[in-house]
Amino acid sequence: MTRPTLLRLLLPLLLLLPSLSAYCGEPQIQLSRSQKAVRTSTDVVLIAMPAATLGLAIAKKDWNGIWLGAAECAGTLAVTYGLKYAIHKKRPDGSDNHSFPSGHSSLVFTDASFVMRRYGWKFGVPAYALATYVAWGRVYGKKHDVWDVVAGAAIGSAIGLLCTKPFMKNVELAPAAMTDPMTGNFISVGVGGSVTF
Fold first, then answer.
1. What is the per-residue pLDDT across 9-54, written as a single tens digit (0 to 9) for each?
2. Which of 6, 75, 79, 156 is the most exposed place for a label (fewest CB within 10 A)?
């Protein structure tokens, strides 16, 4: 594998690194073991979802989808971090003033929306289930309140749904002529076909 190809494949994962910078601050409140475990699991899902999406795109040979997904991640990060640094809302655990909106929620919902729109509900439903878990986990783990994750989910879903074009596996087009079924007379000429997703 050449370096440019490797960089193209790793670009979506590299775009997620700034979201991990929020863990520099120590929590100011005591967390239970389950809260710590859930918080850690949301971090794992944050990395695993884009990695799985990248794997799906590679398996489907959807090279344009990789670039589209990377661009959507970059856009989501720009909007999310722009709002975080403009609003300065304190986190529930007191670790910093970058709570609103939830970066984890915005990124996983962008990914889920991308997967659903690009590859269909077969892959989209599990992606949305994982995204919902992450949003819940960020509230349970005291990193965000409900409004933070709702805003993050709205930003991510909007970017994912508005910017993603469906991935077409097979497009068949052929000349077509229409005739009147009653008389058999010629009506019009056009292009007919089918699209398989």
1. 555 554 444 444 444 445 567 888 888 999 999 999 999 999 999 9
2. 6
Helix boundaries (H) for the chain: 3-14, 33-59, 63-87, 103-119, 121-140, 146-163
Task: Specify if 144 maps to a domain.
Answer: yes
Domain count for the chain, please give it.
2
Q: Are residues 129 and 197 in the same domain?
A: no
Q: Write the burial class of residue 156 (CB in 10 Å: 0-12 exposed, 13-18 middle, 19+ buried).
A: buried
Contacting residues for 180 by C-beta, under 8 A, at least 6 apart: 187
Report the alpha-carbon distance of residue 185 to residue 108 in Å, rounded.
55
Same structural domain for residues 134 and 172? no
Tell me: do 89 and 152 sit in the same domain.
Answer: yes
Q: Confirm whether pTM is higher than 0.90.
A: no
**Residue 56 shares a structural domain with residue 115:** yes
Q: Any idea what DSSP says for residue 92?
A: T
Q: What distance in Å separates the CA atoms of residue 72 and residue 162, rounded to the nearest whole number?
A: 10
